[in-house]
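Internal tracking record. Fields below are filled automatically when a chain is submitted to the structure queue. Please do not edit lines marked as system-generated. If the sequence contains nonstandard residues, flag them in the REMARKS field before resubmitting.
Queue: standard
Priority: normal
Entity type: single polypeptide chain
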Amino acid sequence: MGYGGRSRGGLSGWPVRAARWMVLAWLLAAGVAAQAARTDLDYYLTGSAADAVRAAPATPSTVLMGGGPDVDDAFRWMIAKAGGGDFVVLRASGADGYNQYLYDMGGVDSVETLVVKSRAAAADPFVIERVERAEMIFIAGGDQSDYINLWKGTPLQAAIERAMARNVPIGGTSAGLAVMGQFDFAALNGTIDSARALGNPYDKRVTIDQGFITASSLAGVIADAHLDARDRMGRLLTFLARMVNPGDGWLAPAAARAIGVDVETALVIDNGKAARLGVGAAYFLKPTIAPTVCAPKQPLTFRNVLVQRLSGDGSFDLGRWQGRGTLAYDISAEAGVLLSSQDGGSIY
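SYSTEM-GENERATED OUTPUT FOLLOWS
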């Protein structure tokens, strides 16, 4: 759970009302006036209402943004990758805070925000049509349990997956990042901090889900945002332990991976090759063995997890799980306490 973005929940007062009236006029003209009256679906448009048609990119691409202030260059990277067109922002709460910001970057014909607040709205033909026509898709911050509860298994999920199959660039920040991997911290019972997760890997708030969208190159991966600012390395290690714990039976250690991204930082991935943008670091975790102790109401013992930290101008190959210009070290949990092989014992 997290609230990412530079206060991009939208505006208040007259500008929003005026924008809604303009959208209502467009909806009426398009013959979909019923959308404007719904309380479970909000729609905001900046730019042209016409469908911009662009050739699909040759390779898949993904943006993992770590929350906090948005990384302008990551959005510019998405726009360039797509060749412009219609930029669709998806969220379950909030409003149009991204519209003018993204439109002012240039290179797009429109920015549309769909606030999809129910499973019925996630099956609405209007929503599906807008996603089908998108050249770029971005899932905003908020609460990832909303995305899992309201969108998983719906036509909206299917439309997002079809877009990814066409190599439409997709990204997410904070909660939006959390649902990009094959495995997700779903926050179905609320969030959890590192100390509680390490102290009891089966705490009721450690809810791990799979079966929602899986962005390209993120099979077997769980991702987390705000890693440094909210000291989340311990909980990310716990999520990874649960994924490979024989009692859960999800993955062998050799198949499991985790990615953590700092605030004001983005990982941009083009056909499995990743680079870092912004001011912080990205962390790539790989277990070597199964946990020694991973059981209910017992502190975690999980040793020798390999970490590669990308904090400069290097790169990372997700297929080979190998970085260039990265700093490599090990972290372990010993009876719920994090240890690191770095000088000084730093986890980050």
